[in-house]
What does this fold into?
Amino acid sequence: MMENIKEHIIEYMVLFVAMTGFICLLMIFRYNKLALLGVSGIGSVFYILWGIIHHAIRKRLTRTIAYEYILFGILVFLLLFTVLSF
It folds into this structure.
């Protein structure tokens, strides 16, 4: 596992920095529901694209992996959408 992380450190750093930025944006806009929905949507789309691109670069992208990233991104967005609806 550690060899995988060391080999792809740039890609994982991009993911880490982006997700840290999205968490900071969620904290900044915590009182604006519309902005929170936008940030969570953009964050979910970024995660989906990052996962698909990451596996495509490594030539390991399959339909199952793409579906996994898409479904997980949608699930996280729907959870945030549900929480923000109250």
Observations:
- The chain has one domain: 2-84.
- The helical segments are 2-7, 9-28, 33-57, 63-84.
- The two ends are 40 Å apart (CA to CA).
- The longest helix spans residues 33-57.
